[in-house]
Amino acid sequence: MATSHAFAGNPLKSCLNPDSLIPFLLDSSSPDRFLILPLRKGRPLARTDDSNPPRWELAWVDSTRLDRLEARGDEFVYLGSTDLAEEARQCHYWSVDVSEGTREWGEGLAFIELRTLMVATDWADANSMGQLAIAGHARALLEWHGLTKFCGSCGSKMIPISAGRRKQCTHDSCKKRFYPRVDPVVIMLVIDKENDRALLSRQSRFVPRMWSCLAGFIEPGESLEEAVRRETFEETGIEVGEVIYHSSQPWPVGSNSMPCQLMVGFFGYAKSLDIHVDKKELEDAQWHSREDVKKAITFAEYEKAQISTAVKVGQACKGVEQGPHSFSFNDYALESGEMAPMFIPGPFAIAHHLISTWVNQGVPGSGQNEKSLKRMNSVSSL
Question: What positions does the domain Nudix hydrolase occupy (predicted)?
Fold first, then answer.
């Protein structure tokens, strides 16, 4: 069973002074090992094994082959380090953007969309989940670097420092430091306790029959709980009283202008029930009974979608399938072959765990005991 959300649980640990590693990265004089993950337009380089279904893994490039990367020393971004088993040395992991390069990377390798790798990941496999977290971290840092080439204060050029984990303005009278951008988002399952229902919504960009939790960005000067209440009221007209924290999830697969969102999940108890949908924000919002939502979770074949997407990744790495290497939500079908009347996002999304926690375990608070609270904070798995 996975112990964290997709993109969380990164197994790498930070070095106290990563800048000190850069000379060794470039000249290979250190006894430590250095591995680099190339990304092209936000897509990490990956390979798959011969298992059925195939299992993907990140395709690291050893520092002894830096000539293949066509990159300068200041373009490498430090991701973290691990101790090598039974060896008195470490392995240091880096990433670099090779979007401008034209080099072929070899047979059995392909740059795969991070969302596709997310769906193709076996969420019960801790090693695969760890690799997904590393890939998400790398994409978030490199996308941030691409967006922060010039100082937001004086307009001068910026340079990476701290092995790419910070940037600094080059103008002598400025020298401001900038840190990687994280955009916090509240995502909430609003509950009608008296009638045992949950409020689910649809956006126009959703595929047909897909419903999910409400969500929205936090505004300056408000708390997380205030953001839950404001967003719910603005989008649906529902007033929320008690707000209960569930968990959080990094989300590095949002738009390119927001390299990494942090999804902060909550339950909220409704104080009013009449829905007034803001059509500028949502296509629809409705109350759904626990039984209907449970059916949507039970019949949607999330494992089937994971396996079929893993096969697509394997085909892409073998050169069989070209294009964006994306998955289809149509893989979420009933066992009879008919399309599900409604479904919710898969186990890779925090929305799934908010909804399945409510369906299967109930929600702590309002008199429920501490044992339920501890259960809720663990990631549910189907």
Answer: 180-313
